[in-house]
Amino acid sequence: MSLSSLPPDAAALGIGLGLLFSLVCYLTTNLSPGGMITPGWLAITLFEDPRQTAMVVVASGATYAGSRLLQGVVILYGKRLFAAVVLFGVVLQATLFLLLREEFPMLYSNETLGFVVPGLIAYQLLRQPRLATGVSVVSVTLLTYAVLLSGLLLGLIPKV
């Protein structure tokens, strides 16, 4: 087995580590790294297919831009804002999936959470300073990735 795909146990551990590191980030900096599940899921996609990570970044930016435009037309705040942004991200990711699934079938091989993540990141971009949100997402994701990679290379995480 190569490091390019994670076994289900390691993927679940990645989500758990991402949750732990996200919570620590939030408690120490008062910044949410794009939602609690986002760093763990992004770290997993870095193992699976880095193109998925790039797709999430593009979709998050488009979701953020679309949500800002939507805020100029509709009054959105609180739970309505959260629901609208996440729904916008899901619709955008689903559209990309429908357009690209024939040409790049492996790009969306394990994409369930990936439909929600762009909306979670965009929501935090709307609520927090953009640069600080970006730095927190990247740093917590890379920390999660590094811990997973270290565990796999040291044999602490089973590869089968």
UniProtKB/TrEMBL annotation:
<protein>
    <submittedName>
        <fullName>Capsule biosynthesis protein capC</fullName>
    </submittedName>
</protein>
<dbReference type="GO" id="GO:0045227">
    <property type="term" value="P:capsule polysaccharide biosynthetic process"/>
</dbReference>
<feature type="transmembrane region" description="Helical">
    <location>
        <begin position="132"/>
        <end position="157"/>
    </location>
</feature>
<keyword id="KW-0472">Membrane</keyword>
<feature type="transmembrane region" description="Helical">
    <location>
        <begin position="12"/>
        <end position="32"/>
    </location>
</feature>
<feature type="transmembrane region" description="Helical">
    <location>
        <begin position="81"/>
        <end position="100"/>
    </location>
</feature>
<keyword id="KW-1133">Transmembrane helix</keyword>
<dbReference type="GO" id="GO:0016020">
    <property type="term" value="C:membrane"/>
</dbReference>
<keyword id="KW-0812">Transmembrane</keyword>
<dbReference type="Pfam" id="PF14102">
    <property type="entry name" value="Caps_synth_CapC"/>
</dbReference>
<dbReference type="InterPro" id="IPR008338">
    <property type="entry name" value="Capsule_biosynth_CapC"/>
</dbReference>
<feature type="transmembrane region" description="Helical">
    <location>
        <begin position="107"/>
        <end position="126"/>
    </location>
</feature>
